[in-house]
Automatic annotation (TrEMBL):
Keyword field: Membrane, Transmembrane, Transmembrane helix
Taxonomic source organism: Oreochromis aureus
Protein name: Heat shock protein family A (Hsp70) member 12A.2
Keyword Membrane: yes
Coiled coil: none
Residue intervals passing through the bilayer: 12-34
InterPro entries from the UniProt entry: ATPase_NBD (IPR043129)
Lineage summary: Eukaryota, Metazoa, Chordata, Craniata, Vertebrata
Length: 386
């Protein structure tokens, strides 16, 4: 039996506004990137995740990108590139002003930053930059953009969100509420779009301060992690093992030899599968033995992947990344390869704790794995599973 462990997604931050909807299924949409999750609120207010967080890049940042592309179209690539390079702080302030304006569904006016205006005037009169671009005009030091043009900046984002939501709704969940959270949820255009497209299927909810709800939910979860009763694993997690080499099923380049015979290296042993439900504060165990009788150190290297595991055999295949490792001392070699090495995996809060135990000597070591790590290392795991 393999261990189970999991990665927490953004849905855990949404607790503060959910506890009143007892025994109902709801779908949460949050973030500058869009993270969509499906939860059931259990009796007592704890959350059970039913669908893993499906993140994509169709959030508010996509709208910001469209705004910047439009400004580039107005002022030309060369002028805009120079402005971004020379005045990044001023550009950041401008983008903040734009993010505030996104809350409304109306014509918008953006004060032209001083340095952008000065650089533009060196090329030509300001009015000329706006003559050939539709939906925008120059108005006494401000850039005025029509409501229709502003809405066009949302098209890619809203289409992507609509597609993602429809895919989830087709999966058979009885969803009664769609809950909009995060800074992007403050956009009237987004809220109206979701209501228009899904209001006949679900009740669309948005708290009065959707960004603060994220922060408050994070605090509540930190105080009481049990509020998330279970989660759905976003990845398949595993550990690298060695096994007796079998030329009929193992790659020749994975063969290595020690005093105990021939072995196959880098085998991916599944601990938890993608989309598998994992309970909070659950501990699972797995048992291993050394690959050499006089071995005094045991290495465990952990991996994750979004690949389908059918056909996946080795940890160095495409789409598999290393997320951490631990080294366990095993000083008592009296029982040789018959020593038992336990690996305990505990699921709690937003991290997975892996603890390795040498049963004979009592030696232990543990680590909290960093699920955001992207570094890949080549590590030979000198344990095997009989």
């Amino acid at each position: 039996k393999c261990h189970r462990f999991w990665r927490a997604g953004s849905g855990l931050l949404l607790l503060s506004v959910l506890v009143t909807f007892i025994f109902n299924y709801f779908l949460c949409v949050a973030g500058g990137t869009i993270d969509i999750t499906v939860h059931e609120v259990l009796e007592g207010g704890a959350l059970k995740e039913l669908h893993k967080a499906s993140g994509n890049d169709f959030g508010g940042q996509t709208v910001d990108k469209k705004f910047k592309e439009f400004l580039r179209e107005i002022f030309s690539d060369s002028l805009w590139d120079a402005y971004e390079k020379e005045h990044p702080g001023e550009l950041q302030k401008m983008m903040y002003d734009i993010s505030v304006l996104k809350e409304n569904d109306d014509d918008v006016e953006i004060s032209c930053p001083y340095n952008l205006g000065e650089m533009a005037k060196e090329k030509q009169k300001m009015e000329k930059f706006f003559e050939s671009v539709r939906g925008v005009s120059w108005n006494q030091g401000a850039i005025k953009i029509s409501k229709e043009k502003v809405r066009s900046f949302y098209a890619e984002s809203l289409n992507g969100i609509t597609k993602s939501l429809r895919e989830i709704l087709k999966k058979g969940f009885t969803i009664k509420y769609i809950l909009l959270l995060g800074g992007y949820a403050q956009s009237l255009i987004l809220r109206q779009h979701i209501t228009n497209h899904f209001g006949d299927q679900c009740k669309v909810l948005c708290p009065s301060h959707p960004q603060e709800a994220i922060m408050k939910g994070a605090v509540m979860f930190g105080r009481n992690p049990a509020l998330v009763a279970s989660r759905i694993s976003a990845f398949t997690y595993g550990v690298s093992l060695s096994d007796r080499f079998d030329e009929s099923k193992h790659r020749a380049d994975k063969r290595y030899t020690n005093k105990e015979g021939e072995w196959c290296d880098d085998i991916f042993c599944v601990l938890v599968k993608e989309n598998e439900e994992v309970g909070w504060f659950k501990t699972s165990e797995h048992s291993f033995t050394p690959v050499e009788r006089d071995q005094t150190a045991i290495i465990f290297a952990f991996y994750r992947t979004e690949r389908k595991i059918q056909g996946l055999m080795y940890v160095d295949e495409w789409g598999v990344e290393n997320i951490g490792s631990i080294i366990l001392e095993s000083p008592d070699t009296a029982r040789g390869m018959n020593r038992e090495i336990k690996l305990e995996i505990k699921f709690g809060a937003t991290e997975m704790t892996a603890t390795a135990i040498d049963v004979d000597s009592g030696s232990t070591v543990n680590t909290e794995l960093d699920f955001m790590a992207k570094s890949k290392r080549s590590i030979r795991n000198n344990v095997w599973q009989k």
